[in-house]
């Protein structure tokens, strides 16, 4: 689970959330939410994920599946999540992530495709990092 989902998804959430937040906070985490979600909880959801994933990777060796199986799994998860986000929009008329409202359909397709590619890259990065950490211990 760490190899195929926790590492790539966790790093993705931290990176993409804070990049969009730095660009335009209102597009991903409107100030209105500060009235309901305290700052420490926001960091709990969007920041502390990364150090805990890295601690987990450093303290436990993870056996990665074959590269094709791992990439297939992360692509399946990515596409499934994108389909869920689109389904929620179809049913409710609202995007789960407010920034999706501000970009056109073509840009959404590019964004979703880019995020899937990024997830694959992060999977490979996790594999390389895991091998680096644990091969040097021998």
TrEMBL record:
GO cellular component entries: endomembrane system; membrane
InterPro entries for this protein: ADTRP_AIG1 (IPR006838)
Keyword Membrane carried by entry: yes
Pfam families, per the entry: Far-17a_AIG1
Keywords on record: Membrane, Transmembrane, Transmembrane helix
Subcellular location per the Swiss-Prot or TrEMBL entry: Endomembrane system
Domain of life: Eukaryota
Transmembrane segment boundaries: 6-23, 71-97, 109-129
Membrane topology: Multi-pass membrane protein
Coiled coil residues, start to end: none
Reaction(s) this enzyme catalyzes, per UniProt: 13-octadecanoyloxy-octadecanoate + H2O = 13-hydroxy-octadecanoate + octadecanoate + H(+); 13-(9Z-hexadecenoyloxy)-octadecanoate + H2O = 13-hydroxy-octadecanoate + (9Z)-hexadecenoate + H(+); 13-(9Z-octadecenoyloxy)-octadecanoate + H2O = 13-hydroxy-octadecanoate + (9Z)-octadecenoate + H(+); 12-(9Z-octadecenoyloxy)-octadecanoate + H2O = 12-hydroxyoctadecanoate + (9Z)-octadecenoate + H(+)
Protein family per UniProt: Belongs to the AIG1 family.
Name this polypeptide is given: AIG1 isoform 3
